[in-house]
Structures are given as C-alpha cells and as structure tokens.
C-alpha cells in the first residue's frame, strides 16, 4: 500500500550539468570579491545625493558592460536633501567624558551652539512610551536598550523602533533631544547610523546614536544617582528645497526563448555615508553581478532574461524600489520570480520560498541542488523578497529569500567599520553560487511561479 | 638508589590556610572590577599633563585611603608638554577617501595647512631602511606592515619599531611625513597611538598611524599602480617650554615584623588620551589595589610591607619609574621582590621568576599554590618585571613576571576602544587572586630573594 510518486524534474540532465558547472565556477571564481573590492576601493561610500553615489552609478554601468551584460541602463530616482554635518556628544557633569555619537539619518540639527540638558534615562522604548507627557520637559531622553545577537538578526527588529520612532515619542514627552544606544551588537567606539522618521504634527527634535561603550559609560555614570548633564551638537540639516538625483542601475542577460520573462536578482547600490559599504550592500552587488556574468558566459543564453537591479536610495527609504514598481507597474506580471541580498555576511543556511502552490515541487527540486552547499528549505512558503525587492513581492512577484548567517552583521551595520576586510571570500563564494544557481534554475524551469 | 629530598615549606600550615582564604576571597570578590569601573567612569583617560591625569592622582589617593591602606603618598614627576591636536588623513587621488588616523605620541605637527604629497609605499620597516637616502624626497612614506596576533604578544615587538623610529628613518630618506599601519591586531576604523622618538640631528617629520582597514584600503589603491596622493594634517605640538606635573601614587600595607622590607606590586596610573584606559593599565591598577586591600583586611598584618606603586607617565617614556628609582635609590635593597601588571587582558597562564638561585625552591613552592589557577612555572629564571617595575629589576630587585593571555590585547591597545566592556570579570578574578597570593607569599616567606 506504499505510494511512490515520481516527480518529473524541471531541469533536463543537460541543464543539471550546466547548473553544476555554474556552481563549480562560482565556488572557484573570486569575481564577486573583486567586484566588491573595486566598488569599495574606487568609489567608497555612496549615500544618495553625494559624490560617491554619483560615482557609483557610473561605476555600476561600466562594470556591467565590462562583465558582458546585454543591456545596461539607468532609471532616475529623485528626493530631497539631508545633510549629516558633524556630531559631538559629551557628558558635562558629574564626570566629563567625550562620547562617540552619530546623527540618525534624517535628523534635524541642534544648531551650531548645541544643547545642554540633564538626561532622562529609559531602559527601553516601551519605558519611554510609558512616560507621562511633559514628564521629561527640557531634558535629553536616553534609551539604553541593547540589541541582542541572533543568527537571523531578529534582534534588529526589536531594537530599531527606538531609532525610527524614538525622537517623536521623546518629543511628545517634552524631550528636547534623543540619544540612544546604537542598534548594533559590537563593542566598538563606533556608532551606528540609520534612518529615522518624524511623526506628523510633533516637534522635530535632534536624534543621535551613541556607540555601545559610550552608552555603557553613560549608564554607569547615571547609576551614581546624581543629575547627569549632556551636551549634544548635531549640525545636520533637512533641505526640503534641494532636489537630489540618483538612479537605479539595471543590467540584463537576455533570455533566448522567453526574453520578456524576467528573473530579477537585486541589491542596493547606495550605502550610508560611513565605511565603504562593503557589506551593506557591497556583498549583494558583488554576488548578483557575478551570478549574471557567470550565466552570461554560458554558450547558450538562459531561456528567460536575468535582470540585475541595483536599487538607488534604499537606506533613505527604499526610494529606488518604490520608483521601480511605479515605472514597471504594467510589466510586473513578467517578473516571474525575484530575490535580493541585503542582510548578513555569512554563509546561506536557509531558503524560504514565496511561490504558488503548484510551484512548490520546483522549489523542492531547486533546494536539492543547493542542499550540498548547506542550505535547508524552510517549511513555510510565504517569503517576501528582502529589502528593495520586497516592493516587487508586494506587487505579486513570486519571491525567494535566502537567509545567511547574520550573527556578526550588526557589529558593522551602518558604521565606519563596514569595510572590505569584513568580507569572507569563502562565504562569499557560497553565497554567489547560491544566487547563480537560483537565477539559472529560475530562468530555465518551465514553471509559472505564480501558480 | 632513589633519592628523596624533602624540602621545607616557606609557609606554615596556618599561613597556607590564609593563602587559600585570600585566593577564595579574590575569586569571589569583584573589588578589582569595581576599582576599574570607578577609575574609568569617574576619571576616564589620563595622559600626563591632562585634567584626567590630575584627577586620577586624587582618585588614586582617595581610593587607597578608602581601601584601608596604612600610608598613602605621592611623589612628583615632571616633564615637558606634548599636545595631540587633531589628525586628518585623506586619499586625494586617484580615489578620494577619508582615512582614520591618529598622531603618534610625541610627533610634530604639519601646520594648520597640512601637507599633500605622493605616497612611497614600503611593506616593512626593513624595506624603508633599505631605501636610498634621497630616494623618497618630498614624499609621504607609508609602511604597511601588519602586526601578528600571538598569545604572548610578541608580534608587538616586531611591529613597534616603525612607530618608535620610523619617522626619523623616513626623514633620512627624504620623506616629509610618515604614515604607518597601526600597531594593532583588530579590524576597526580605530587607529592605535603610542610613543615615538626622533633621532638626534635628523629632521623631525610628522608621524601618524592609520587604522587597519584604512591601511588595507590605501594598499589596495596603491595596487592600481597609479601615483597616490595623500593629505595629512596633524596639529600636534611639542612644547619644550611648558613643564607639566604628575605624580607616582604609592600606598602601603605596613609589615608587622619587617616593615622596612618591601614587596612591590605595581601598575601605571596614566593612560593614552583615548579610550578610558580600562585595560592599559586599569586592569593592573584594579588588581594590585585589590590585592593589597585583601591582605590588609587580614586579622594579622603580613610580615613584610606590601607597597602598591601606581607609576606616573609610563606611556610617554616610563618617567614615573625613572623618577622612582632615582628617589628610592638608597632603599632599593629593601625592595625584596616585585611584580607589575601592564599587558594583556586574559587569564594568567605562566609565571617567570627572576630571583637568586637559592630562592628557586620558594618560587617552586609558590608556583604549586597558583598551579590550580592554571599558571605554569616557566623553566627560565631571568624575569625582568613588566614595564615600569622593570626599572627596579634593573637596579637589582628580584622580580616575577606573570604572563596573561595577550591574544586580544592589541585589538584595543592605545585606542578609543580601550574601555570597561573589554574587561572580563572572571579573568580579572583569576588575575587578582594570583597577585594577591604572590604579594602575601612574598611578604611571609622567610627568604632573601636576592640569594
Ligand atoms: Zn542594506
Ligand atoms: Zn543598510
Ligand atoms: Zn601600559
Ligand atoms: Zn600603553
């Protein structure tokens, strides 16, 4: 009474052989590393609207052409300007100390004269929320919550709320500024930036992150039970009147049989204006460009088109992704499946699909191909693509999300320490192999991933 | 024909019991941690001649008194001033990048306008030495040698030559400045300072260290084979006309039977003007003060006097130690034995003695007491005490050197990252137990360690 089901494979024997060749090639090539080395050495950091951003667009177009992409083009993305300026934070009393601080992205400044006030300390954002309106009037709110370290990075979600909404919540309670422990797992005197938002109708107050050791120090000073006075100067500026321009950079390996059907692999081209953006998102850029190149070098083009999308302005609010889904709205149904890399710096250990029920067998087949690389198929089938590409998932694009080891990622994320030396060439080869194999499989499998 | 030798123990059974009590107490107490927390929170960094140095002297006197030392006093140490100013380093061409740099201690400045020149790259100090005089005239010399990581820190000795003598050697070859990879094993955008010296009769040129990732970047830029232009600004100043004052801080637990005989345990009170000097040398300060306190709390005072010496101005050239041996020259023979802590941040795994041949049995006996803490007795008997205390060894004081795990130490050494969070409370307990047991044993053993 045993039932044996033989499922037909999507890839022919020959295609499977090509897939294994692509795997071997990605595991032997250091192309993705060389791409990241080139970007970080010749461009460096690249916040939207900076000279680095402009250079990175030229760099990406040139690199795609050099790598033999069939089509390369840019699509403009605009926004208004934010200027970081400088940040200075000091404990004035009872024990003077300089602290390492960085403005949160989008924060208003303090003015050149800075502000000095007593500190109101909260262990968590929930504690700050629970404070009575007016209870910390004239004070600098300080949230000392420390991000937890986890392989899947879920400590980030628990910590990032203070960064995004903390300033407006503190302002509601009467605070004149927010300082917070960085959203990061390291112990360096290096603060983590990242985007923040002001709620409508609430006084905009300056917001900065302290490095972990400085947050520890401030907590220890506060433990003495005396009033603690802090000086904060941020010369950040929101310039709503200045339009800045960037661009999504898109390149394709054209499909041979169904060129209109698109397998999208992406990363974001911009970075914060600290470090060289080697991890965030240099890693993604390296692996998706290398993946398309490896496939483009095959004697026969893949059936579907491989589209590499390097999104603009992810860090400041996914602006490139929003623009992309607007511009390509009519063509969204031709995006047959997509995946992005914008997280972690270790080996991929898990893959999650987000496809139609009938496509699950194809996903299982693909999972078998990458299983020897240490990648397990998650039981859920509700994946949204990472980061920018999630905007395409939201428009109905079938998606895959690959989970790399994120244990170390938030040691470096959005800091000056996001540099090339943090890239592990061996892990990157595995990552590149997975993305290459995914793109090839998706371009060859005769499956409608929406079904 | 087997010979059995029964060696009499130096400690009586009762004294051994006290030793075990002291061990247990040090392993349970967090006093040494609390001392470091207090110093780093209430004082912070403390380069000779700064406000922090002045505060640290008051802090140390107060702390020794609070810990029940019998006598506490200071001995003045003077020097001339060096001002760090600010440091700015940038790659100007072909790929502009900001670099993280720090002035070496004692360097002259560049003037407010800074200097810009092409880079002459050397992999090692030996390569720089081998360059022909005049061969790099008008250039900025860059030595990219990377320090090796070892448990005993011996990579430091191989790397530090560039820091100490590099500027004068570069100047001999015609260079107008020296930039070097930091003497450090980390991958942080945090540069390592430390003292440098100018050779007599050679042009004094500015000298700065780059963080490891910035040195990597500069190497990668240089690999492109185009001329690389760097801008360097140091506003450092040597002020030979300004006399600055500091002090050795000395405290004692007076001996009950031979109060004139001194067991010296030491550390240095000063630090570089970066970080909070939690490791260098907060660790040493915490453990020697706690050791003396634990012994001071015994119902019966030890036979010999325990003298805690917190040396001034170690970082800028062992000035406190030099002053100490000058002032105490006549009394040096009463310094029966000594040990300092000024290295590493892990567990002690080795002890090396430097005593008279007849005292070796006593050293072996002591080694047996600390063996359960994981400390092995090294076969050599030629120890010089660490750092400052080495100046007393050189004057004939018998010495012990305890080797802690130094694997991580040079990640933090002389950087902004030398902060309290790097102190491992458990390792520190072991360290404190060893120093406490050493001081008690040395104060009780009826041995002339010179013999
Ligand atoms: Zn990102
Ligand atoms: Zn990011
Ligand atoms: Zn030291
Ligand atoms: Zn030092």
From TrEMBL, chains A, B:
Its principal location? endoplasmic reticulum
Which ranges does the record mark as transmembrane?
none
What keyword terms does UniProt attach to this protein?
A: Carboxypeptidase, Endoplasmic reticulum, Glycoprotein, Golgi apparatus, Hydrolase, Lysosome, Metal-binding, Metalloprotease, Protease, Secreted, Signal, Zinc, Zymogen
Under InterPro entries, the record lists: CPQ (IPR039866), Peptidase_M28 (IPR007484)
A single BP term in Gene Ontology: proteolysis
Does the record carry Hydrolase as a key word?
Answer: yes
Q: Which Pfam families match?
A: Peptidase_M28
Q: Name one GO cellular component term.
A: lysosome
Residues in domain Peptidase M28? 248-436
Cross-referenced Gene3D superfamilies: 3.50.30.30, Zn peptidases
**UniProt-annotated location(s):** Endoplasmic reticulum; Golgi apparatus; Lysosome; Secreted
Does the entry feature the keyword Zinc, yes or no? Answer: yes
One annotated GO molecular function = metallodipeptidase activity
Stored PANTHER family: CARBOXYPEPTIDASE Q (PTHR12053:SF3), PROTEASE FAMILY M28 PLASMA GLUTAMATE CARBOXYPEPTIDASE-RELATED (PTHR12053)
Quaternary data:
Homodimer. The monomeric form is inactive while the homodimer is active.
- For this entry, the protein name equals Carboxypeptidase Q
Give the originating organism: Thalassotalea algicola
